[in-house]
């Protein structure tokens, strides 16, 4: 860069005073200052854009690395899952020793017990929730059907026909 010392600036100022004259020198100095400020702002904008582009490029590289790592991880998981599924299928393969009393290998006594337990749970749940008979609810004003607040308000509104108006 250009090295401007105090003596060089004084020499430039003296030449400018002689060439431009004392009358127009303040206007030229103002204009030179504004042009110098614009140049500085432009340079700072260019620097910030370049640094932003560099950061964006770094982020793109990082994104590609993360995506490749995620794909590798996903492939590893799928591979492990397929291997585990294959091992389970080998363990559950039907064999002559595992077939009993007309059932296939996937049905076991524990499955039947779980189904029966679920049925009993449903029966108990229905018995608990319906303790009050329907005839008692309807006689004593319990709601048998739930309706929204807007629907309840609509039941009590006076219906006005469009032809009847106040005017």
UniProtKB/TrEMBL annotation:
Keywords: Cell inner membrane, Cell membrane, Membrane, Protein transport, Translocation, Transmembrane, Transmembrane helix, Transport. It is a single-pass membrane protein. It is found in: Cell membrane; Membrane. The keyword Protein transport applies. It holds the Pfam family TatA_B_E. Belongs to the TatB family. Part of the twin-arginine translocation (Tat) system that transports large folded proteins containing a characteristic twin-arginine motif in their signal peptide across membranes. Together with TatC, TatB is part of a receptor directly interacting with Tat signal peptides. TatB may form an oligomeric binding site that transiently accommodates folded Tat precursor proteins before their translocation. The Tat system comprises two distinct complexes: a TatABC complex, containing multiple copies of TatA, TatB and TatC subunits, and a separate TatA complex, containing only TatA subunits. Substrates initially bind to the TatABC complex, which probably triggers association of the separate TatA complex to form the active translocon. NCBIfam families: tatB (TIGR01410). This is Sec-independent protein translocase protein TatB. It comes from Undibacterium macrobrachii.
